[in-house]
Amino acid sequence: MTYNKDLIAGKLRRWEKYLENYRLPAWEEIPDIGLYMDQVVTLLKSYLDYMPPELKEEEIITPAAINNYVRKKIMPEPVKKKYYRNHIAYLIMVCSLKQSLSIPMLKTMIPNGLSGEELKKIYSAYALRHRLSCAYFLKEVRVLAGGILDHEPESELTTADTNDLISSAAVVSGLARLLAEKLLMLEGKGPEEEAELPDGSNG
Question: What is the reported pTM?
């Protein structure tokens, strides 16, 4: 595969600038007035506009997807077809994590049926962690793409080749998902139970 270095560098710099300023809404900024499905979809797409639908096999923010999340009990049911702050907070977390975690893992990470205060605490911590993770990710991209962005090499992973950048990003993404899922599997377990779980360390 061949790529235009200037095009790739320009795209990376624009994305970097965007993510530097990106924030999930604070708990208090999420509307609690009762929104209908079409309003919720529009709102979520504005909140999560860093996730372009053309890059996904399955669009995550659709009425059908949201109905599926309710049916699978990942989130509470709407109240008389209206969605409130607690519903939207669940949806922000589910939609932003769905590309990395399976449905069972999401249910472990964000239990359904949380009280308003519990959900507020979990959502607020997640929004902060999301922002910090974006900042960390951008630092790693700067290192990986140093040769494309004309930075001094900082790591043996630094490359000027877009194919190498794609390979590294894909491998890191897969390993990050495995780490998250392995840790979620340890929820509520002690050392003796952990030994019974497959961890890939034997081969």
Answer: 0.87
SS3 (DSSP) at 151: coil
Distance CA 113, CA 101 (A): 20
Close Cβ partners of 169 (under 8 Å, ≥ 6 residues apart): 144
Distant-in-sequence contacts of 50-59, Cβ < 8 A, 24+ apart:
50/18, 50/19, 50/22, 51/95, 51/96, 51/99, 56/99
Measure the CA–CA gap between 14 and 65, rounded to whole angstroms: 30
Contact 31, 85 (CB under 8 A): yes
Mention every residue, 6+ apart, whose C-beta is less than 8 A from residue 105.
180, 181, 184
CB-facing half-sphere around the CA of 151: CA atoms within 13 A: 18
What tens digit of pLDDT does each residue of 144-184 get? 999 999 877 678 889 999 999 999 999 999 999 999 999 99
Nearest-angstrom CA–CA distance, 28 and 10: 35
